[in-house]
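Before going further, learn to read the protein records used in this course. A complete example follows; check for yourself that the lines match position by position.
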Amino acid sequence: NKPVVATARTLLFRLPRVAVCPTSPLCTRCLLAVPHLFVRSKNMSYSKSNEIELDCGITMELVALNQYYTYEGLLEGLPTTSKNEYKIETAVASAKDHWGTEPHLIQPAETPIILDHEYPFGVPASIPVVASLGLWRSRHQPAGEEFGCTELTIVWFQPEFGLPSDESTLNDLKALDWSSLATFREF
């Protein structure tokens, strides 16, 4: 059996209502040479799958999603803790450049890679393979504010492309303190 290689084109058929970034393969928005997928909420209006109710009772809606392979461009060797730190910093900087607000990072779990010998280039470890940069909005308005919404840019890492679906990511998202992290935006 041949392994299936997923590309941006094949993912279009697996993820409904997804569009490939028009600037691929070199995205000028985040300066990464990777295929990007953008999910827009207007394309998902038939479903509430882009909404998450937080533990605090506020509902947030995913209005834009940018995803790419975490280790895209790693041609040789293993991911290490220092490379992972760089990948996380790059994702946060990319989200800030893309949406213009300071993103909230959901720190990914780092899994050690066990070898039978010492690795000369650092401590081998991996994080989930898909970096996700999302812009979330809510109709929740702080006291005294009118005619607007609150929004938050969030960076997280998950095991596969698409909307957040694994239990760990969903629990981290649901536990957010929206009132202290999100910013108000007037219409």
Notes: The beta strands are 19-20, 37-40, 51-53, 59-69, 104-105, 111-112, 125-126, 130-138, 148-158, 183-186. Helices lie at 8-14, 81-99, 167-174, 178-181. The CA atoms of residues 91 and 118 lie 29 Å apart. The chain has four helices and ten strands.
